[in-house]
Amino acid sequence: MTTGNFCRAIGFAVLFSLAGWADISFDNQGIALAVLSGALAFGVGYALWYQALRGLSATHAATVQLSVPVLVAIGGIIFLDEPISVNFLVVGTVILGGIAMVIIPAHNKAK
Protein backbone atom coordinates (compact mmCIF):
# COMPACT_ATOMS: atom_id res chain seq x y z
CA MET A 1 0.00 0.00 0.00
CA THR A 2 2.82 2.39 0.86
CA THR A 3 4.43 1.86 -2.52
CA GLY A 4 1.12 2.67 -4.20
CA ASN A 5 0.79 5.86 -2.17
CA PHE A 6 4.28 6.96 -3.16
CA CYS A 7 3.57 6.20 -6.82
CA ARG A 8 0.40 8.30 -6.70
CA ALA A 9 2.29 11.14 -5.00
CA ILE A 10 4.90 11.28 -7.77
CA GLY A 11 2.43 12.95 -10.15
CA PHE A 12 1.77 15.76 -7.68
CA ALA A 13 5.49 16.17 -6.99
CA VAL A 14 6.25 16.46 -10.70
CA LEU A 15 3.35 18.86 -11.26
CA PHE A 16 4.42 21.19 -8.44
CA SER A 17 8.06 20.95 -9.50
CA LEU A 18 7.13 22.01 -13.04
CA ALA A 19 5.12 24.92 -11.67
CA GLY A 20 8.24 26.29 -9.98
CA TRP A 21 10.74 25.14 -12.63
CA ALA A 22 12.11 28.65 -13.25
CA ASP A 23 13.21 28.91 -9.61
CA ILE A 24 14.79 25.44 -9.35
CA SER A 25 18.54 25.01 -9.25
CA PHE A 26 20.58 21.83 -8.84
CA ASP A 27 24.00 21.25 -7.37
CA ASN A 28 25.86 18.13 -6.31
CA GLN A 29 25.53 18.77 -2.59
CA GLY A 30 21.77 19.33 -2.86
CA ILE A 31 21.28 16.18 -4.91
CA ALA A 32 23.42 14.14 -2.49
CA LEU A 33 21.49 15.45 0.52
CA ALA A 34 18.16 14.71 -1.16
CA VAL A 35 19.23 11.14 -1.93
CA LEU A 36 20.54 10.61 1.60
CA SER A 37 17.37 12.06 3.08
CA GLY A 38 15.13 9.90 0.94
CA ALA A 39 17.08 6.68 0.92
CA LEU A 40 18.55 6.65 4.39
CA ALA A 41 16.45 8.73 6.73
CA PHE A 42 13.10 7.93 5.19
CA GLY A 43 13.93 4.34 4.26
CA VAL A 44 15.41 3.48 7.64
CA GLY A 45 12.51 5.21 9.38
CA TYR A 46 9.98 3.12 7.49
CA ALA A 47 11.95 -0.08 8.12
CA LEU A 48 12.01 0.62 11.86
CA TRP A 49 8.33 1.56 11.88
CA TYR A 50 7.30 -1.68 10.18
CA GLN A 51 9.41 -3.65 12.66
CA ALA A 52 7.61 -1.88 15.52
CA LEU A 53 4.21 -2.59 13.94
CA ARG A 54 4.69 -6.31 14.52
CA GLY A 55 4.16 -5.78 18.24
CA LEU A 56 1.30 -3.27 18.02
CA SER A 57 -2.40 -3.59 17.36
CA ALA A 58 -3.86 -1.42 14.61
CA THR A 59 -5.35 0.94 17.21
CA HIS A 60 -2.07 1.32 19.09
CA ALA A 61 -0.11 1.78 15.86
CA ALA A 62 -2.45 4.52 14.64
CA THR A 63 -2.37 6.23 18.01
CA VAL A 64 1.41 6.05 18.44
CA GLN A 65 1.86 7.45 14.94
CA LEU A 66 0.21 10.65 16.16
CA SER A 67 3.32 11.30 18.25
CA VAL A 68 5.43 11.92 15.13
CA PRO A 69 4.84 15.72 14.95
CA VAL A 70 5.80 16.08 18.61
CA LEU A 71 8.94 13.97 18.12
CA VAL A 72 9.92 16.00 15.05
CA ALA A 73 9.43 19.25 16.99
CA ILE A 74 11.60 17.88 19.82
CA GLY A 75 14.24 16.99 17.22
CA GLY A 76 14.10 20.59 15.98
CA ILE A 77 14.59 21.86 19.52
CA ILE A 78 17.53 19.52 20.16
CA PHE A 79 19.34 19.56 16.82
CA LEU A 80 18.38 22.92 15.29
CA ASP A 81 18.21 25.01 18.45
CA GLU A 82 14.56 25.88 17.83
CA PRO A 83 12.97 27.78 20.72
CA ILE A 84 10.60 26.00 23.10
CA SER A 85 7.33 27.91 22.90
CA VAL A 86 4.27 27.86 25.10
CA ASN A 87 2.32 26.72 22.04
CA PHE A 88 4.61 23.70 21.63
CA LEU A 89 4.34 22.81 25.32
CA VAL A 90 0.53 23.02 25.32
CA VAL A 91 -0.01 21.22 22.01
CA GLY A 92 2.67 18.60 22.72
CA THR A 93 1.15 17.88 26.12
CA VAL A 94 -2.35 17.55 24.66
CA ILE A 95 -1.15 15.19 21.91
CA LEU A 96 0.93 13.01 24.23
CA GLY A 97 -1.84 13.07 26.84
CA GLY A 98 -4.35 11.87 24.27
CA ILE A 99 -2.01 9.07 23.23
CA ALA A 100 -1.57 8.05 26.87
CA MET A 101 -5.35 8.01 27.35
CA VAL A 102 -5.62 5.40 24.59
CA ILE A 103 -2.58 3.29 25.37
CA ILE A 104 -2.52 3.13 29.19
CA PRO A 105 -6.08 1.80 29.71
CA ALA A 106 -5.56 -0.78 26.97
CA HIS A 107 -2.23 -1.80 28.51
CA ASN A 108 -3.86 -2.21 31.94
CA LYS A 109 -6.67 -4.35 30.46
CA ALA A 110 -4.12 -6.66 28.87
CA LYS A 111 -2.65 -7.54 32.31
Q: What's the short version?
A:
The chain is mostly helical.
Strand content range: under 5%
**Terminal Cα span:** 33 Å
> Radius of gyration in whole Å, from Cα?
18 Å
Largest sheet: none
Question: Secondary-structure blueprint of this entry?
Answer:
Elements lengths: L1 H18 L8 H26 L4 H8 L2 H12 L6 H25 L1
3D structure, described in words:
The protein is an all-alpha fold and 111 residues long. It has two domains: 55 residues, no CATH class; 55 residues, no CATH class. 80% of the residues lie in helices and 0% in strands. The protein contains five helices and no strands. The radius of gyration is 18 Å and the shape is extended.
Which labels suit this protein?
111 residues; mainly alpha; 2 domains; 0% strand
